[in-house]
Design goal:
single chain, 38% strand, mainly beta, 219 residues, 12% helix, disordered N terminus
Length: 219
C-alpha cells in the first residue's frame, strides 16, 4: 500500500495500537507527558496518534507561566512538580522520521477534519515506551495549500547561545533542517503529498489512560 493510499482507519506493522509516552522537554525540563498510540513503525520512522482530551501530565508552574518563558537558571534543579490535566489542542497524527531533527503533525479539528500541518523542530531519544523530545523552539506551520511560515523566530533567537539550549552553530543547523522540510512542503513531497489527511483511528481504540506520574522531569 502506498503512502497516498493510506488513510482512514489504517494501521500497519507489529505493535500498532501500543501506548507510548510523548514527553516534551523545554530547556532540559519536562513540560508535558502525554500518552499516544503507535500507528505505524518502519525503518523510516514511526507515526503516533495523539487524541484531543487525552489524560496527561503537565508541569505545574507558578502563576500560570509557560516553561519556555522561565530561564533555566531560575527553575528548580530537579524540575517542577507535575499535575494531572488533559491534552488541550486538537487531535494529531505525528510523523517522527528516523534520525531527523523534526516531527510533522497532521492536526485535525471537529469531525476529524484536516486542518493543516505543523513542523516541530526537535531532538528525539527513545527509551522503551518513552519518546523524549527536546524542543528546539523554532517551528513551521504549513497550511492545506502548502503555504508555510516560520513560528517563534524571536524566542528561538533569544535562546540561542544559552547553555541550556543551543549554540550559534547548532541554531544554524536547526534552521537548515526547517528549510529542508519547508522545501518538501513546496514540492508537495511526503509528508505533504496528501497522504494520511483523511486518517481516522480504528474504532476499537479507546482514549489512553493517564498512567503514573513521570519519574524523570529533567533530561
Amino acid at each position: 500500500m502506498s503512502r497516498a493510499e493510506r488513510g482512514a482507519g489504517t494501521t500497519a506493522g507489529a505493535g500498532a495500537g501500543q501506548i507510548l509516552r510523548w514527553n516534551l522537554f523545554i530547556g532540559g525540563h519536562l513540560s508535558s507527558s502525554v500518552p499516544v498510540r503507535l500507528v505505524e513503525r518502519t525503518d523510516e520512522g514511526q507515526l503516533v496518534w495523539l487524541e484531543t482530551g487525552t489524560p496527561m501530565w503537565r508541569t505545574e508552574l507558578p502563576r500560570g507561566a509557560h516553561l519556555r518563558d522561565i530561564p533555566p537558571e531560575h527553575r528548580p534543579a530537579h524540575g517542577y512538580p507535575t499535575t494531572a490535566d488533559r491534552w488541550p489542542l486538537g487531535s494529531a497524527l505525528i510523523h517522527q522520521p528516523a534520525g531527523a531533527g523534526h516531527a510533522v503533525f497532521w492536526f485535525f479539528g471537529r469531525k476529524q477534519k484536516f486542518g493543516g500541518w505543523y513542523v516541530n523542530l526537535e531532538h528525539r531519544t527513545h527509551h522503551g515506551e518513552d519518546i523524549d523530545v527536546a524542543d528546539h523552539e523554532l517551528d513551521i506551520t504549513v497550511a492545506a495549500d502548502r503555504s508555510w511560515r516560520w513560528k517563534d523566530e524571536r524566542s528561538f533567537a533569544e535562546k540561542t547561545g544559552h547553555p541550556a539550549y543551543w549554540s550559534t552553530e547548532e541554531a544554524a543547523a536547526i534552521r537548515t533542517e526547517g528549510e529542508r522540510v519547508a522545501r518538501l512542503a513546496e514540492s508537495r513531497t511526503f509528508p505533504f503529498d496528501g497522504s494520511w489527511c483523511d486518517f481516522k483511528p480504528p474504532s476499537h481504540w479507546t482514549t489512553p489512560p493517564r498512567g503514573p506520574a513521570p519519574v524523570r522531569t529533567v533530561l
